[in-house]
Amino acid sequence: MDSAFLSIDHVSVRHSNSTAEALCDVSFDVAAGEVIAVLGSSGSGKTTLLRAISGLQSVSAGNVVLDGVDITKTPAHLRGIGLMFQEHALFPHLDVADNVSFGLRMAKMPKPDRSERVAEVLELVGLAGFGSRDIASLSGGERQRVALARTIAPSPLLLLLDEPMGSLDRVLRDRLVSELVDLIDRLGLAVVYVTHDRSEAFELADRIAVLDHGQLVQLDTPAILDAHPATTHVAQLLGHR
Amino acid sequence: MVGALPLMVSASESRGSKRRSAFWRLVAATPPLVFLGVFFAWPVFAILLRGLRPHGTWNFAVFGEVFSDPSMRRVLWFTLWESIASTVLCVVLALPAAAMFARYRFKGKRVLWSALLVPFVLPTVVVAVSMLGVVGGGGLIGVDLNGTVWAILIAHVFFNYAVVVRTVGATWSTIDPRLEESARALGAAPRRVFVDITWPLIRSSVAAAASIVFLFSFTSFGIVLILGGISHRTLEVEIYDQTAKFLHLDIAAVLAIVQLVVVVAILMWFGRSQRRRSVLLEQRSTSETERSAGTSAQRWLIRSNLLSMAVLFGVPLGLLVVRSFSTPSGWGLGFYQALTDSRGGSTSFVPPIDAIGNSLLFASIATVIALALGLSAAWAIVGDGSMGSSRFSRWTDTALMIPLGTSAVTVGFGFLIVFDEPPLNLRSSLLLIPIAHAIVALPFVVRLLVPGLRSIDPRLREAASILGASPRRVWWTIDVPIVGRALAAAAGFAFAVSLGEFGATAFLARPDRPTMPIAIYRALGRPGDYNFGQAMAMSTILMVLTVVVVTVIDRFRPAGVSEF
Amino acid sequence: MKRSFVVVALALAVLAGACGSSGSSSKPTASVSPVLVNGALPHFDTPVTLRVLTHDSFAVTQAVLDEFETATNVKVELIASGDAVAMTNAAILTAGNPVADVIFGFDENLLGSVLENNLLQAYTPQRLSGADQSYVLDTSGMATPIDHGDVCVNFDRGAFTKSAIKIPTTFDGLTQASVKNEFVVEDPATSTPGLAFMLATIARFGGGDDGSANAKWLSYWKQLKANGVSVVDSWETAYYGSFSGGSGKGDHSLVVSYASSPPAEVEDTSLAVDDSPTGVITDTCYRQTEFAGILRGAANPRAAAAFLEFMLGSSFQADVPGQMYVYPVVTGTPLPDTFAKYTAPVANPLTLPYADVAANRDRWIAQWSALFR
């Protein structure tokens, strides 16, 4: 693997209202085009990790380096990282097209280019022609696709996904996961994918990171992880008995 | 691949986000506070000083005189209990209507929602004369309540009903009805659903509305004078008499201080009840929260609400309209035609079209000022949500409310003595009118915007931020449009407040630029059928104008905002 | 936009602070020299703006005012400041640094405090010689009488005709059982006509120097109270809310109003005086004279003097009945037809010396209030 595209370097996060660290000295690298799945039970610090990388959460120690630039102190809106929220957080006052083009607008992309890009991205997620639809009128699966389209529209080099399939039913989820694998492949993005679902992690990831109580307990390819879980907790997470 | 977004590290951005947010909140709070400082606190302070330190020496003895006077103590006690009673009565009567507007679809809903503001903007003297026709001796209900405290309470409910219905209704309509429905499904009876689910969610907006109703009742002037008979006197009436009638500025100062202390104490108390709430709600669109009345109980709720509104508002306002068409020579448009008769070109005559123009102009300026300052203040109060409701928020909020609890005559006479030198010789400037209106409107604007801002899911702001929006752009692209509904409601209130404001305007308006209420009052000040009829005709026009303007504003959404 | 507002507001605050000390140095009261040129209004070479402080019922025909503006090259700006009492108190509060040049509309009940507070500068209009001199109450030349009226009890003729009760003609008639609960008056603490009617009872029954609850005039009020008199805050409420002769169709047939109210109720001018809808009990009338004066510290005292002359001129004097329902003070001024026909002549209205009113007004109101609150 070539040199690191994203470097998480001894990062710790402490929430203001608690004494316990939400993330404790976590370090790992992500190569360009690599997909890392972050597995862990709830409260293990998965979401905090994504928020720290994206800049929504400031870190109490350590550095985040993206493409050779230390972005630890960069505010979230200047990092150029894509983040897809667990509950999608679609803007209820904007229609589908305006949601998708929001990031393009912020990047001051001219209007004609914007509509072109929106059409392109909506096509990519299978929602061609949905531009003028109201958010309230969308189904769960459609909302998920709009959220994805909105996230990838500004062409981020790094994509952070926080349990993107969380609220969807099994059948839909399986279909979307395979679509997502396909899409990520085509775009060649580096991805950090948070999930608590083992099968998703195995299907998508080049490597899997396991978090427990804010600590990184293991980071390996699915095959190694499956064969040699580092702790009993990892084994339990993977469904071993 | 399209080029990646720019990455930039700026030194100034790297400071602690908390300190930064506190700093920006202070910056945002500055314009409204400076505005109030110059146009409210300073004149009030000056007039109090003139009263208590008339010739360079303090006169504290007057405190003893006032407090030992049993009639003053009676005034204070009456003011307190009538305003508490008015508030309770108003909230109890208005809550079912708020529920109706929040939850059900029915014919004429939009127009009714706008029309609610009509009583709120009509000049007191018009409504009081109309009310006398209903609750007075020989009135329509056949019981003479004139001069009793009941007449005062009914009139206070009449004026303030809209404050509760519109404030609480707007919040209620954004609450997902499925919360209530799932509570029902879990075995909760309707009353339990209300107590355990709905009430905690609407409580803070009820407190916000109630505090405004309290302040209006506490400082009630015209209603108490006209309907309360001469034995019922509020602190406000006493302050007016001591200032404008007797020029006893020392006694007036003591009473004004008492008023201020009570108002601040009550506001702090209401503020505490609001503080307990920090629930974040996903805002729902009306299309999601509105239902057709399905059960007979729901249909009964709607019918009984509409009936009580018809009695409370329809009868006195209807009487007013009827009188405007009832000329000495039978039914007709005589009074309306007379509005264009210039009475031999008197200076006291202003064509109603000009009075309408003046009113609309002043109201527009006042609305713009109130919205700009109100947005700024609301943002300062809410912050970015990370600090919760701090002491700073509460104090800012309280400071904005104080003018509502202060006598107009105190401020008016204060203006006379502080704005008396060039370049700030504003005493006879027309600009003071929209400024005074904006001061009155500001707390409404803030009270409507704060819950709206608080209800925004912080993840939406985060999502915008991730997509490259700077904090300022997050504010303009997320906060402002999403609080659009609250903003529209706030604009409606500000506009209506300005249209109907009388007390301060009477002090400030120049005879050649009267507003509608001033023109109505002027017509009522002259004897004869035609003057009375014209006052009724102009009041009817003001009513219609209010409904039209508020309906337009209620429908208005900032660009790009769809119905949600 | 938000930011620029801060700047403006801060600038205002700074400016305000800089001029906070207004030091009310009392300038010597200079009197203004006569302004008329051969009996006509003077013409000012450079345009002048004149500010006139009045109460909110001031009115004049626009064409009449235009006459003044054209003749003198003076632009008139009217400033209304509530009723006569509030207007006067606002002027007292700003004495020496006034909002306007001329003040118009204070009556004899306010004259005492106007003079006491050194509000005006002296000017005796040349045209005052044409006025009925009995209205000239202030001999120092500060306050110029402009118009007069009378506060009187009005009755609803229709109500009395219908009930066949005799219309009262005196104060004592108002305490008769036949008119029990029929009389509505205004609170003297809050209403100008209310105050005038209270002063009328003091002038008629005496006892004004008696501070006790047994003063003679108060005994009359006790009888009124026993006879069910109702008290409201203002003329508007009384006349439109309670009086059956007004358009509000109230339920009281007797009200304290003005001698000039009846003409306004007449729609059909062919009606005989004795058939007009409302009438006046002339025995109860109390004189009210309205004064004008030049405010001390006025920016344009000469233009102000010209305005006083104008107000005593024939066009303004002839205009006051129709515009403000009052009588002119200049003798021989023609009255409008309905006005002349339907207002009862008030031969000997009640009056009190203005100095007595100034000295005792607050105490009298307190005595009255003790009885009614």
Any overview of this molecule?
- The complex is a heterotrimer of chains A (241), B (564) and C (373).
- The two termini of chain A are 33 Å apart.
- In chain A, the strands form two sheets. Chain A has a six-stranded mixed sheet, sandwiched between helices.
- Chain A is built from eight helices and ten strands.
- With 241 residues, chain A is of the alpha/beta class.
- Chain B is 71% helix and 1% strand.
- A two-stranded parallel ribbon of chain B has the order 1-2.
- Chain B starts with 16 loop residues before the first helix and ends in a 9-residue tail after the last helix.
- By secondary structure, chain C is α/β, with parallel strands linked by helices.
- In chain C, strand 1 (48-54), helix 2 (62-72) and strand 2 (74-80) form a beta-alpha-beta unit.
- Classes of the chains: A alpha/beta (241), B mainly alpha (564), C alpha/beta (373).
- The interface between B and C is large, with 72 and 74 residues.
Structure summarized in a few sentences:
By secondary structure, chain A is of the alpha/beta class.
What percent of residues of chain B adopt helix (DSSP H or I)? over 70%
Please mark out the parts of chain C with pLDDT under 50 across 5 or more consecutive residues, or reply none: 1-28
The shape of chain C, in one word, is: globular
CATH superfamily of chain B: MetI-like
The CATH architecture category of the largest domain in chain C equals 3-Layer(aba) Sandwich
CATH topology of the largest domain in chain C: D-Maltodextrin-Binding Protein, domain 2
Quote the CATH topology of chain B. Answer: MetI-like fold
Helix/strand structural class of chain B: mainly alpha
